[in-house]
C-alpha cells in the first residue's frame, strides 16, 4: 500500500469537492474505495505476523504526540515489564514524521516512527498486538482476531455524536447518517473503550452504536489517561509545573492568564479551506478592561482553518494554536472561556473558573448538532457578549459564591475517575 503522491492528492481534493454535492454518488465511490483498500490491506496483513510485544500508537489521526495514547505510552516506558516491548508511533505527512523522529519523547531505542498512509504504517497496523488510538481506525482496516484495539477517544461528549445526532446536516463530506455509520464501523472493531465516568460510558457507547451486550466487557471506566498530568499538577503544593509552563509560554510574572478555546462549527466548512470560525470574543474590550491584569491564551480547535492575526494585540494575546500539549495550557491558565468544546470537562479537574461564550447558542443547539444535556448544568456564566465575561473576571469571589456548589457536583459527575492514576489502571486492565 503506497502513500498518496502530491499529484494524486490534488486530483483527490478536486474530486472530493465535486462529491460533496452528490451524496449518493459519494457513498458509492467511498464504499468502492474502502472495498479496494480493504482487499489490499488484507493481502498485506496476511503476510505479517502479530508481534505480542509490539504496540501501535496514534493521536488525532497522526497530527500530534498527545492525549491518552501519549499518556499510556509514557507510562509504559517507565514500567519494568515493558522493557522488551517495541512501540510504533504514526504521524501524518512526511514533514511531521521527520520532525517527530527527532522528538525527545520518542528517543527511546524501542520506539520507531512511521508516516501515516505509508506501507510501513500498514505493516505496523498489521503487526502490533495492541493498537492505541484516540480517533477512528481507517474504515478499510480491520484488526485481526488476535489483536487488541483500544479506543481512547478524545473527550467527554457535550455535543451529540454519531447515532445520537438528530439534526440532519452535511458535515464537510458526510451527512449525519453517513457519519453515524462510520462511528458504528469503528465500534465493531473495539476491544476496549476508555471512559472517565458513567455519563461518558453511556453516551459514547450509544453514539457509536456499541451493542448493549458488549458494553460490560468493552468499556474500561478508569478515567482518561490524558488527564493524569492535570490532576497531578493540581495536587502539587509547589505548583512547579505551572510555573515552568507559564515561563515557557511567556506569561508575564504577576499577570493572570485566560485560556480562550473555541471549537468548530459543522456548518462552516469551505471547500479548499476547511472549517472557518466567526464568533471571536471582543479582544479590544478585553484589553481595555483587563489588560493590566490578564493575558489571553488563544487555542482554537485544530479543525479551524482561519488565519488569526494578533499583531495588534502583542503582549496581550498569546497565540498557542500550535502548542502540542493542551494540558500545559490548562495548567498555566487561571480561567477558561470556551463555547461547546469538551475542554470544559478536562479543565474542571483544576477547579478554576469556567465561562461559556455562546452567541450562537440557539443555532448550534437547534440547527447544527444539539446537546446531551442543558448547558445550564455547566457552572459559570453563559455569555452572549464579551462584557459579561469581563464582569465575571473582575469578580472572582462572586464566581465561587454563585457557582461553587454546582461546580463540585459537575466534577463528580463528569470526571470522578480523573485522579492522576488512570494510565496505570488502564495498563493493568489491558496487559494484566
TrEMBL record:
The keyword Zinc-finger does not apply. Its main location: membrane. Keywords: Cell membrane, Membrane, Teichoic acid biosynthesis, Transferase. It holds the Pfam family Glyphos_transf. The keyword Plastid does not apply. It is found in: Cell membrane. SUPFAM superfamilies: UDP-Glycosyltransferase/glycogen phosphorylase. InterPro entries: Glycerophosphate_synth, TagF_C, TagF_N, Teichoic_Acid_Biosynth. It is a peripheral membrane protein. It comes from the Bacteria. Signal peptide: none annotated. Belongs to the CDP-glycerol glycerophosphotransferase family. This is CDP-glycerol glycerophosphotransferase family protein.
Amino acid at each position: 500500500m503506497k502513500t498518496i503522491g502530491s499529484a494524486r492528492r490534488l486530483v483527490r481534493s478536486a474530486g472530493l469537492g465535486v462529491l460533496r454535492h452528490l451524496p449518493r454518488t459519494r457513498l458509492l465511490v467511498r464504499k468502492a474505495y474502502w472495498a479496494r483498500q480493504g482487499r489490499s490491506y488484507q493481502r498485506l496483513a496476511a503476510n505479517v505476523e502479530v508481534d505480542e510485544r509490539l504496540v501501535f500508537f496514534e493521536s488525532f489521526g497522526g497530527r500530534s504526540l498527545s492525549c491518552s495514547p501519549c499518556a499510556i505510552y509514557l507510562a509504559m516506558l517507565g514500567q519494568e515489564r515493558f522493557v522488551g516491548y517495541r512501540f510504533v508511533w504514526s504521524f501524518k505527512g512526511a514533514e511531521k514524521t521527520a520532525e517527530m523522529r527527532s522528538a525527545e519523547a520518542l528517543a527511546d531505542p524501542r520506539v520507531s516512527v512511521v508516516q501515516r498512509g505509508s506501507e510501513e504504517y500498514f505493516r505496523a497496523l498489521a503487526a502490533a498486538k495492541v493498537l492505541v488510538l484516540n480517533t477512528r481506525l481507517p474504515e478499510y482496516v480491520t484488526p485481526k482476531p488476535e489483536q487488541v484495539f483500544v479506543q481512547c477517544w478524545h473527550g467527554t461528549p457535550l455535543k451529540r455524536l454519531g447515532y445520537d445526532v438528530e439534526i440532519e446536516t452535511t458535515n464537510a463530506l458526510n451527512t449525519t447518517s453517513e457519519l453515524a455509520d462510520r462511528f458504528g464501523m469503528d465500534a465493531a472493531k473495539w476491544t476496549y473503550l476508555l471512559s472517565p465516568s458513567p455519563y461518558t460510558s453511556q453516551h459514547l457507547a450509544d453514539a457509536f452504536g456499541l451493542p448493549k451486550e458488549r458494553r460490560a466487557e468493552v468499556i474500561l471506566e478508569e478515567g482518561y489517561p490524558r488527564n493524569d498530568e492535570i490532576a497531578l499538577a493540581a495536587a502539587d503544593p509547589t505548583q512547579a509545573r505551572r510555573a515552568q509552563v507559564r515561563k515557557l509560554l511567556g506569561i508575564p510574572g504577576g499577570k493572570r492568564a485566560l485560556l480562550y478555546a473555541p471549537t468548530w462549527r459543522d456548518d462552516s466548512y469551505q471547500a479548499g479551506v476547511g472549517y472557518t470560525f466567526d464568533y471571536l470574543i471582543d479582544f479590544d474590550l478585553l484589553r481595555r478592561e483587563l489588560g493590566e491584569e490578564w493575558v489571553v491564551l488563544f487555542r482554537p480547535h485544530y479543525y479551524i482553518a482561519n488565519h488569526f492575526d494578533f499583531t495588534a494585540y502583542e503582549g496581550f494575546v498569546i497565540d498557542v494554536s500550535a502548542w502540542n500539549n493542551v494540558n500545559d495550557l490548562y495548567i498555566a491558565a487561571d480561567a477558561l472561556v470556551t463555547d461547546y468544546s469538551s475542554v470544559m470537562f478536562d479543565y474542571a479537574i483544576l477547579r478554576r473558573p469556567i465561562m461559556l461564550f455562546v452567541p450562537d447558542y440557539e443555532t448550534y443547539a437547534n440547527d447544527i448538532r444539539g446537546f446531551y444535556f442543558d448547558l445550564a448544568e455547566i457552572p459559570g456564566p453563559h455569555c452572549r457578549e464579551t462584557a459579561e465575561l469581563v464582569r465575571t473576571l473582575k469578580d472572582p469571589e462572586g464566581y465561587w459564591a454563585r457557582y461553587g456548589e454546582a461546580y463540585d457536583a459537575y466534577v463528580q459527575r463528569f470526571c470522578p475517575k480523573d485522579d492522576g492514576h488512570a494510565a496505570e489502571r488502564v495498563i493493568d486492565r489491558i496487559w494484566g
